[in-house]
Amino acid sequence: MLKPGSRWKSQVCSAEAVLVRPPKIDGVPQCGGVDMVPMDGEVAAATALAGLDTGCLVGKRYRSDELAMEMLCTKAGTGALGFAGTALELVEAKKLPSSD
User: CA–CA separation, 52 vs 30, rounded Å?
Assistant: First the structure.
């Protein structure tokens, strides 16, 4: 089972991320459609899958409401963060009401 706060690095690019909320199902976070490895794990050179090479931005959160999963990108990369072959969606900042 994945734990909140666990750190992961990509095998397809320079991306790194922290798991904020683990998914409901077993598996490993992905970047570019390829399984990520724990920060202390060995990285094998891999190529991002077509359609999952849209990138991730540092400091941004990525979420899947369906899986109840959320990750925080700590180092930008060219692969899209995902899980089970599906890219996570970028969490947009909430709009604050204007102060008149």
Answer: 10
Dist. CA 67–CA 44, nearest whole Å: 27
C-alpha span between 100 and 93 (Å, rounded): 21
Cα–Cα distance between 11 and 81 in angstroms, integer?
Answer: 12
Query: For residues 87 and 66, what is the distance between their CA atoms, to the nearest angstrom?
Result: 12
Rounded to two decimals, the pTM is 0.87
pLDDT digits (tens, 9 = 90+) for 55-86: 999 999 999 999 999 999 999 999 999 999 88
Q: Write down the residue that tokens 């734990």 correspond to.
A: 3
Domain spans of the chain, in order of start: 7-48+55-88
Distance CA 39, CA 68 (A): 23
Position of tokens 């180092």? Answer: 75
User: Cα separation of 68 and 19, whole Å?
Assistant: 12
